[in-house]
Design brief:
12 helices; alpha+beta; seven-stranded mixed beta sheet; 43% helix; 270 residues; 10 strands
């Protein structure tokens, strides 16, 4: 863990409700907790807990996945352990026995807990998290360019981009633009080594759940060659005349995507 990641983690944890939530999720182990159960136990409203979960996920401290009709949240033990290791790195002035208890917690190395935490680590490794990234970041631009996706306007205001993380690994990038109750999918690109694993669909689902939490109710996208993939996610081709005017006036709709690009739409549900 680097200093930037540590600062994001401490910022997320410096609020009473979020600290309470992360401690509940740590106790719940690999089974995690549904958002409704978290809200009930934390004694906050569903909308309030959604805000706090979003902040914890933004810092990479928790992950989520869909199980049937529920969204299950799980503590990211690797990231939490990394936070402890960051604090205790090079500690003790030559007296390592001082740090031994903290080191044991960070490594989850208690013999009687080894099996449990190995199972947790294996599960965390399969979960995805969306971590905000600035449009001017070179790694984002390179990933989009390698996939022949538009980059001319990614550093303009109104664009929101994320690094798709699986544990501590970057597996792709995605982003959107919000226009009232509509959201325009900008891009979903998975790194070559991580393709054909179902990560694109899972990342798109996470992205639209985040957009729904911000008020979006209909998603749109333009694509030249990925329509079959997005149709498997519930998108339907529509005529451009049926899209919101604000969307039709975007740079992507006017000039960045060719006239042959297909417009697709999908109704979002919470």
């Amino acid at each position: 863990m680097d200093q930037r990641q540590a600062l994001a983690a401490f910022s997320a944890l410096s609020q009473e409700t979020r600290l309470h939530i992360i401690r509940m999720l740590v106790v719940s182990g690999p089974d995690g907790m549904a958002a409704g159960a978290i809200a009930e136990k934390a004694e906050v409203s569903p909308s309030n807990v959604s805000f706090h979960l979003k902040e914890l996920e933004r810092a990479g401290l928790i992950a989520q996945q869909r199980e049937s009709r529920s969204i299950i949240y799980t503590a990211n033990y690797e990231r939490l352990g990394g936070l402890i290791r960051f604090l205790m790195e090079d500690c003790c002035g030559g007296n390592p026995e001082i740090c031994a208890p903290a080191a044991a917690v960070a490594a989850c190395c208690s013999p009687e807990m080894e099996g449990k935490f190995q199972m947790t680590a294996n599960r965390i490794d399969t979960l995805l998290a969306l971590l905000p990234i600035a449009g001017h970041e070179g790694e984002l631009r390179s990933a989009l360019e390698s996939a022949d996706l538009p980059t001319d306007d990614i550093d303009e205001t109104g664009r929101t981009f994320f690094r798709i993380a699986q544990g501590d690994n970057t597996v792709g990038y995605c982003g959107y633009e919000l226009y009232g109750d509509s959201v325009l999918l900008r891009s979903v690109v998975i790194t070559p080594a991580n393709r054909r694993k179902g990560l694109g669909g899972r990342a798109t689902d996470l992205l639209f759940r985040r957009a729904h939490a911000e008020g979006a109710r209909t998603a749109y996208l333009l694509t030249t060659n990925a329509a079959p993939f997005f149709e498997t996610l519930g998108f339907t081709p529509i005529d451009r005349a049926g899209a919101p005017i604000a969307f039709l006036q975007t740079r992507q709709a006017i000039s960045l995507c060719p006239a042959s690009a297909v417009l697709l739409a999908k109704t979002l549900e919470g």
